[in-house]
Amino acid sequence: MKKQQGFTLIEVMIVVVIIGILSSIAYPMYDEHVRNARRTAAMGCLMEQTHFMERFYSANMTYTGAAPPACPGQVTTFYTMGTANLGAATYTLTAAPTGAQSGDRCGTFSVTHTGTRTNSTADNCWR
User: Fold this and answer.
1) DSSP codes of every residue in 98-121
2) Strand order of the sheet with strand 117-119?
3) Cβ contacts of residue 69 below 8 Å, gap of 6+?
4) DSSP single-letter state for residue 96
5) C or N terminus of the chain, fewer CB within 10 Å?
């Protein structure tokens, strides 16, 4: 009698269950990693804009009229960048999450003319 080769339905179902369990663990970790990368890019853009503002102030002795450079597309897709409290001696730069990033645990980031860095949630996301 010839022995049949192959997989039984039970063996295939066990493999499907194992793949499902691994996927349910891996995907949230991947998603959080992507959010962290986007957040880091937004922080880097805010710091770039801060450096621009300080160079502008050094050249003009005022922040009035300063227009920070735009962030790269991968940042503006997930964050709305803004300038508030723009005056002769003050400014506040902000990055508010939008779209897929809106559920971020850190919320809106801001940097002031004194270098004070804050975010809108209790987590200290500036490292």
Assistant:
1) -GGGTT-TT--EEEETT--EEESS
2) 79-84, 92-97, 109-112, 117-119
3) 48, 49, 52
4) E
5) N
Q: Residue 72: helix, strand or coil by DSSP?
A: coil
**What was the pLDDT predicted at 121?**
83
Q: What's the whole-model pTM score?
A: 0.81
For residue 121, give every residue at least 6 positions away whose Cβ sits within 8 Å of its Cβ, in sequence order, or none: 105, 106, 107
Per the rule left: phi > 0, alpha: psi between -120 and 50, beta: everything else, 115 is left
Under 8 Å between Cβ of 53 and 86? no
Instruction: Using the structure block, give the residue that is written with the tokens 């160079």.
Output: 55
pLDDT of res. 17: 96
Average pLDDT over residues 47-54: 95
Going from N- to C-terminal start, the domains of the chain cover 11-62+71-119
| Burial class (CB within 10 angstroms; exposed 0-12, middle 13-18, buried 19+) of 11 | exposed
Tokens at 58, concatenated = 């050094």
113 Cβ neighbours under 8 A, 6+ residues apart: 53, 63, 89, 90, 91, 92
